Amino acid sequence: MTVKPCAASLLVLALAVAGATEILAQSRIASAKSLRCSFPRNATGTWTKDGMPEATVRSTALVLRFDSIEPDSGTAQLRNGSVGTEVTVRLAEGYLHFMQAFRTGPLYVTTVFDVGDKSATLKAVHSRHEYFAVPLPGATSSPEQYYGECEIVP
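and the corresponding structure tokens:
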């Protein structure tokens, strides 16, 4: 089978554009040094007395700020007011993951996806893997997942 020169040129051009598009898309989060994330929806999971899983979805107002993001060294700061906590960060093909493992057992993970409607807004999800048999008022007592978006902060 032979490929005509015109078709071959179009194929090379299409592959170049696809590769450039992927590089440009990843560079948006790869170069981000600070993110402000807002999560207006939350799903909380639990298990009934029968052991069946169930979830409740509701509105929420969770805001997370990640600063000093350094994917090469795997570090970032999660800011809460003036207090900062070091978290692990990993960049992988259009995904930016922030992980916080507590010595007491829980794991919190925030993933920022390199997709969004505006140039500086990115879709994101924040998950809290935590469970207490007796719920604690005002604390995460059951697995939670938050849905929202992050903006790159200059």
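(Above: one complete record from the training split.) The first helix runs from residue 5 to 30.
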